Amino acid sequence: MDKALAEVPAPEGVATRALVEAALRDHAAPVRFAGWGLAGADLKELDFHGCEFLRCRAARADFSACDLGEARFLSCDLNNTVCRRTTLSSALFRDCKLTGLLIVSAATIGLTFERCLLVDAQLQGLSFRHAALEGLDFQGADLTEADFRQAVLTGCNLRDANLTRARFEGADLRGADLGGLQLADAPRFRGAIISRQQAAEIVSRLGLKVA
Questions:
Q1: pLDDT of 124-171, one tens digit each?
Q2: Residue 88: left if φ>0, alpha if ψ -120 to 50, beta else—which one?
Q3: Labelling 4: which of 70, 134, 177, 195 has CA 20 to 30 A away?
Q4: How many CA atoms does the CB half-sphere of 71 hold within 13 Å?
């Protein structure tokens, strides 16, 4: 994939939509946007299929209705970006800041996050089924109806996340920070694997001691 990418120099300052459109139009191959300033950019409905974003600053950018299929975001600042009705199939986010990210009504089959900050992100209904999740900070995120079945979470933070109707059957949560577990939280993790320490925390909060 790297060999097919067209290298486009980053403009000075914040790039306009017109500059982004020109970069896409003038190259037959997918584009590598390295070091581009895209903060607050209106990028709605653009075709970024297979493109790569490397160390880009795109906080508050609007990717609504874009084609980001097979796109890669590497070490980017994407805080408070919007992905509404966006194609994110097989897209990859690695080492990115995604605090406040909004994903809604999007195509997300094969979407992958690696070592990303997803604090307070809106990720309702996303599927992480069978995924190996590492270094993801979901603190305060809305994960309503998210699917974590058979997923393995390592170094992940679910503290204060909204897990209403989320599914965890078969998930390995031994490497996750689940926050201050209470007995009332048990049903939402039904069928999941937790560590002895996590189980002990629940027992401790009940004021019980294991003999």
A1: 999 999 999 999 999 999 999 999 999 999 999 999 999 999 999 999
A2: alpha
A3: 134
A4: 22
- Count CB-CB contacts under 10 A for residue 183: 10
Query: How many whole angstroms separate alpha carbon 187 and alpha carbon 181?
Result: 11
How many residues does this entry show for the chain? 211
Lookup: tokens for 70? 């097979």
**Cα 95 to Cα 41: distance, rounded to the nearest angstrom:** 21
Alpha-carbon distance of 67 to 146, in angstroms, equals 23
Phi, psi of 183 (to 5 degrees): -60, -35
pTM for the full predicted model: 0.91
